[in-house]
Amino acid sequence: MKKLHRIIITGGYGFIGSHFIKYLIKKNKYEIFNLDCLTYAADNRRLSGIENRPEYHFFKCDIRDENLLNNLIKDIEPEAIFNFAAETHVDNSIIKPHDFITTNILGTYNILESIKTTKIKLIHISTDEIYGDRKIKSPYFVEESNFSPSSPYSASKASQEMLINAYIRTYRINAMILRPCNNYGEFQHSEKFIPTCIICALNKKPIPIYGDGKNMREWIFVEDTARAIYIASKNFRTGMILNIGSGEIISNLSLSRLIIKITGQSESLIKFVKDRPGHDIAYGMDSTKIRRLGFTPSTNIKEGLRKTIEWYKKNLEFIK
User: Fold this and answer.
1) What are phi and psi of 199, to 5 degrees?
2) 37, 40, 50, 225: which sits with the fewest CB atoms below 10 Å from its CB?
3) Catalytic status, residue 65
4) Choice among 13, 56, 131, 153 that is catalytic
5) C-alpha closest to that of 151 among 102, 77, 95, 203
6) Is 34 helix (H, G, I), strand (E, B) or coil?
7) This model's pTM is above 0.90
């Protein structure tokens, strides 16, 4: 039997982490150790059909638990750690920032401490939200653009990156940072924007849109993100930072109208609600660097939404 590459995925029952595990399983090259603390946003049904495979292992672990995390990393002896574990919902970070500070910052610190005397590679999954607002007509963000986070969530993600870069310089750890734009796809938690729109449309309920709905976001299908992360990891270089985007930027209002059109509902479902504090006007990244490594998104927004909507149609009873 060929030797498999041992890797740890933190947050593997989360949305993007679970899709990445499913992508890796198909490669038949990896022994995967999923470390997840099973918060409300995790769902083991995302990996149904994989959990009994001999190359897959799950350990309930909160990355804030320094001793447990350190012991697991020592026992597993992975070649690499892919850090997806994070609190991610902006609205929740505004209401209760504490969990974002402890999970995202302290948790990342614990990972860094556990690997600082090893040769383990860390591939950290960040976000485009660390850049903050982009004026509609201004240039897209490049990897060297300044941080300007607007929420406790994005501030915690920016803090993760600064810690990682400090550990690269001070302790010479092996780490790279990836910044995906907004993801969507099957089995995303209902608190996120696209699932909210889809579920409301399918149930003919009001679709809440913050403010005037003109906020612009870049969207990428989650399966494309999984492939991009894999390509980036195969081109690993310590200190490398890569934007992962699709180039497809659309306003929240236009996106909701597209979902309404695909589901065959009426635009009368759209309901404008009070805007949230610190709401960024627009995002948009230059992803030239990862495209030079061979990544090109394969699913455009219309095709991706159709696939996603079909999945939600068939699985409404499973949605949290």
Assistant:
1) -65, -40
2) 40
3) no
4) 153
5) 95
6) strand
7) yes
